[in-house]
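User: Assemble these into one structure.

Assistant: Restating your components, then the assembled model:
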Amino acid sequence: MRHRSLLVLTTAVTAGALTLSACGSRDGGNSGNDSSGGGTTVVIGLDAPLTGDLSALGQGIKNSADLAVKTANKNKEVEGVTFKLTSLDDAAQAGTGQQNATKFVGNDKVLGVIGPLNSHVGESMQKVLANANLVQVSPANTAPQLTQGPEWQDGKKVRPFKTYFRTSTTDAVQGPYAAQYVYNEMKLKSVFVIDDKKTYGAGLAATFKKEFEKLGGKVVATDNVNPEDRDFSAIATKVKNSKADFVYYGGEYPAGAPLTDQIKKAGAKIPVVGGDALFSGDYIKLAKKNSEGDMATSVGAPLETLDTAKEFMKNYKAAGYKLPYEAYGGYAYDSTWAIVEAVKAVVEKNDGKLPENADETRKQITEAMQDVSFSGVTGDVSFDEFGDTTNRQLSVYKVKDGKHVPAKTGEFKG
Amino acid sequence: MHDLPEQLANGLILGAMYGLIAIGYTMVYGIVQLINFAHGEIFMIGGFGALTAWLWLPDGTSLMVALPVMVLMAMTCAILVGIGAERLAYRPLRGGPRLAPLITAIGLSIALQQAIWAFYPDAKKDLSFPQFEGGTVHLAGISLQRGEIFLLVAAPLCMIALAVFVSKSRTGRAMQATSQDPDTAKLMGINTDRIIVTAFAIGAAFAAIAAVAHGLKYGQVSFRMGFIAGLKAFTAAVLGGIGNIYGAMIGGLALGLAEALATAYMADVPGMEQFGGGAWKDVWAFVLLILVLLLRPQGILGERVSDRA
């Protein structure tokens, strides 16, 4: 029976391998040198997917935060304080994000954390950081429950963690905003809704669906996919035969690009509409011509149209980063700058230096964050009582000639 | 159910790809009783080989012209890695405890994946693969993508070629003999080492063809694509009866059909609404595997072989 048992063992090992591979890879933090020529060094921790298929967005976040740190040091924004960025890779895995959060907490020099990109990773980091009073500002988490508690949809908004802030708007407005745009301005009345069952994707699809039905639109079918899959032929055939006017996809571009590609190849020439996680140049690169006409909503106004963003874009280019800043670059810059401002406020409060005790410093920075207000890359940055940004601008982008072109910018009115 | 023909086509095409990869698992298992877990990575390297060939060719080369070069390059890369794996990782362990080559295979799989991740330019994210120009082809009410036609032509040709090779050629018959009893085969003057290398090479070549088909169909390759594809192909090989080359193809087709049909219709079965949809298709594919293994532990086409050793 040796062979049979070998087969059973092999199957068990396969299952193990599946689990292991889900843990993803991790690469060490960037250990920069500590030489600051006197004064205090404040480390800002950054957590984002720097590898894997969301790395385009993650690297954009990292570079933009790096630019903010360099700018703050160059301008001597806070007298006597040198900022340093330490980046960790979460590979879009919740478990890895949590480990990274623990690492940040363990380092006394870390006084603020930027990130992560993914809402489900954010969910796993919140408590670890909150227990240590370490402030966290996410440039990209859009799931509403992160700031408003799990029962936000029933109107019971409770802020779960007072250390958590974000500079991006939430899916509670992003999904409905897309619904209003498509229904009122594109005049498309029937939709096939697909999501990837992740915190971000499922939440986005649900808020979209609710608003679209409220407006009078028809949801002809719903379906879901595994975000790791690349074969969507069966769903593409279903979409084609459903005769829907368009597809709404709650999910991210690595699966979104092949999905739109296969829907069009199956013969359904209808646009795919999605959230800010489809708003990446890689989406177009992967789906090529079949991404034409697709739409993505994203938080804030297009950077190109904001005066405050022009300098950021100029400096980003001058700094010579290899990869573009992508959808969240501006928000990452503002998140970093919010931490710089909070540190500045604490330094001013304590007669020009930070408190000796790291726990005390972290606590004061968290408190200072609540009152931070400055003019950032993406507009005026400040936080409401839930830690959400007070900037509620949204934009719709449409793929035209291989580029995301802004179609509309506005504020969501419920 | 009006889209049944199309869903069947989707399932068969996906299944043919699983089947092509599964051949590599089943041939190696049939001869050395080793599950070559690095086979999924050999498939992935085939994909990157094809992409490299495409990038080397001058811009503006038509894909029709480039395709043979790409297939050749994919096969060369995959076969080299396959043979290298056999020579360097598995042969030194032959005759050792059975667990040793298995663990080595898993290690090799991770090493190959990370090597591509680290050294292939820009491979840290999905890379786009060339696509055929032109729209969908309609054939008897079924719409086919241009990229799928390659697979539809290649898969049956490969199967026929393999069947003829194994049953008619000298090496093929030596292969069968080695799989039945390696020691006696050796006594009869068969160079079993060469036969084993041949099995690895054929498996790698088939995986390379599947990889080109994968690239053409989905328009992208990534360093992680071998993992899921390898897992599915391994499942297909077990489903069809591991060690049986026809079983690998049958198992692949069954798996592909199960996935497509579960995605398309499971939600329509009363009481199953919440278990329908694309995210559940793997669950149904594995339910099928468990059912088959419960009723026929040797797999669909597998024969109940008395255990050697």
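Chain A has 13 helices and 14 strands.
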